[in-house]
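[audit] Reproducing an earlier prediction to check determinism. Same input, same settings, fresh worker. If the C-alpha cells differ from the archived copy the diff job will pick it up downstream; this log only records the rerun itself.
[audit] input (267 residues):
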Amino acid sequence: MTSYDYSIITERPGLLASSEQLERLYHRYRFASQYAHRKDVLEVACGTGIGLGYLSHFAHSVTGGDIDPKNLAIARALYSDHSTQKNSNGRMIEIAELDAHHMQFPDRSFDLVVLFEAIYYLKDAPRFIAEAARVLREDGVLIIGMVNKDWEDFLPSPFSFSYYSIPELHALIRDSFPRVEFYGAFPTQVQGVLAHTISLIKRVAVRLDIIPGSLEARAFLKRFFFGPLSPLPDRVEEDMCEYSAPVSIPSHIRNKDYKIIYAVGRK
C-alpha cells in the first residue's frame, strides 16, 4: 500500500486535457503496440488502465498493475464487462495490485514490459529494472516512456524521486538490457508569439513553485492558456489522434529537442 495518493496525478477517464495531452496518451500506446503483437504484455504503473484495452488488440495477453487502490478500482470497473475485457484471442485483461520494486510474477512470465511516465515515482529505479529483466523472457523487451528533464519547459511532478537524462537512463538500463535504443517525440520548438509567451510564463511559474500538484487543478491553467479542453476517453482507441513516429536519437548525450523520450531495452 502506498502512502501517496497517486490518483490525483493520474490520467483518468473524463479528466479535462489539452489536445497535446491527448496526443501524448495515444502516442505512447501506439508506439508500444508495434512490440506487442502476439506477446504477453505487462504494463507497470498502468494507472486507471486507459491503454490496456488498446494493447490487448495486438497482444496475446495483457496484465496491468498499479500500486494505487483508487486507480485500480477505476481500471477494474473499466474492464468489468467480460465481453469487452477479452482480447481477440479470448484472453482476459488482468488487473493486479503491483509494487514495481517487488513484482509477484514468476521468472520469464512476459515478452514485453512497459512503464509510461512513472519511472520518476520509483524510490528504487534500479530495483525495478532488475525486476523487469527477471519477469521478461529471453528475448523480452522493456519500454520506458518519460518526459525529458532537459526540455526547457520541463515541469516536475509531485511525489517524484528522480528524473533521468538520456545518458543517465541508459546507464541505469544497460547492465540488464545490453541493447538499448532511444527515441524522441514531440519536438520542443516553440512557434508564434503566444506560444513563446506561454512558455515563458510556465518557466517562471515552475521557478516560483506555484504550479498546482493535481491534474484536475492544472486543467484550469490549461483552459486559460489553451482554450477549451476535451475529456480523456475511457480507453485509447485507434486513430484517436494523429501519430508521428518517434525519431531515433543517441544515447550518450543530453537532448533538448524532444519533450518525450522512449527507451527500448532488449535482453
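[audit] rerun output stored. Observation attached for the diff report: The longest strand covers residues 136-147.
[audit] end
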